[in-house]
């Protein structure tokens, strides 16, 4: 009996062992690793909320693994829990101070919260850890430019060029730094250099096209966007850009084709809706234009250019108060955007409120100190109101320094001299402009205005003499 019972218990024990009931208990570190790996699998599937739960369990059981906190922070970022994400990533950076990834992820997270200076600090630590990481150097250069720390940007660019001296993306980034410094001619040369170095690089051609658009070189910009689409057909952003270039060139049918093609694949693409609204506006179909841009704002109420387009259409309809409201809305959404304030200043000028327009333009220069379009308009408005003439002349000389004949700026220069009563200099400026465009009515009128101002003192003296002679005979009364 005893022998048979022992045999039975042996079989039971063997079965329990086979079922794993007597397996060794996992340690907390092993449980943590198991939860961590489950979290990675969930993240790979896009189940970030469940992944966070697994990473939370892993970090509770083992608080000394930087990778656990790094992945936890990245998952928390995807679920929108920014505060906890920063804490997790900060813990990862503390546990592994010689690793780039925690600092990089922290910087990207802080950028989403518009904390540029804090992001720069983390990127600087990342560069100090490993100065050969190209993506880190590119990002820190962008932020240096945004913060107007051009010396730091140029220093980082030198490091980047050493890593890849002929890399088109780096040459493009160098051009961006030059643009922000106001060195537009040098920047465009760099972009052309980048396009030559990498003729099949669609991003370089797209970047060159956008900068040519800013310079008003719409034909050249259209060619660059066409090249971009030839390299990478179906690129939505390039298609919208090409539509914008055609719109500026007045090729409304071709612009409409581009925007319509975009909307066929992406019906909610707001830029294309705004572009179509501007096509209708330029055709004079203002109700349709208004409906189109209203739909764009419904799709994205925070879209700055949609509100700018709304203001433009309302201006065409003569609804100036409503247009001002739309331009102000655009400016409030992005205080650094020059276009909304530029349009607002232009509207104020047409309304005879030049001083209000000047205030808007001066506010724009605080964010875009090298914006040539703003400076040109500001110089004209200073001359019209006889205010800040020295600054106006400074802006005019900047524009004329390019060496091209700029009739608009020559006219402003003449007006400044006229306001200062420097008649010879004013006439010289007008003569220079007339030598290029002898039939321009505005120049002929300005020439006559200068002559009238020059002759005004002589006419005033003549009137005074006539008034004095017309008093008649003087009557002398006898003193008795």
Explain the overall architecture:
The chain is mainly α and 480 residues long. Among the domains are: 66 residues, Tetratricopeptide repeat domain (Serine Threonine Protein Phosphatase 5, Tetratricopeptide repeat), CATH 1.25.40.10; 95 residues, Tetratricopeptide repeat domain (Serine Threonine Protein Phosphatase 5, Tetratricopeptide repeat, Alpha Horseshoe), CATH 1.25.40; 83 residues, Alpha Horseshoe (Serine Threonine Protein Phosphatase 5, Tetratricopeptide repeat), CATH 1.25.40.10. It is 78% helix and 0% strand. The protein is built from 26 helices and no strands. Helix 8 runs parallel beside helix 10.
CATH class of the domain at 268-362: Mainly Alpha
* Gyration radius, rounded: 34 Å
The proportion of residues forming helix, as a percent range, comes to over 70%
User: What is the architecture of the domain at 268-362 at the second tier of CATH?
Assistant: Alpha Horseshoe
Order of helices and strands: HHHHHHHHHHHHHHHHHHHHHHHHHH
CATH superfamily of the domain at 268-362: Tetratricopeptide repeat domain
Oligomer: single chain
Helices, by number, come to 26
In this structure, how is the largest beta sheet organized?
none
Report the β-strand fraction as a percent range: under 5%
Shape: elongated
Number of strands: 0
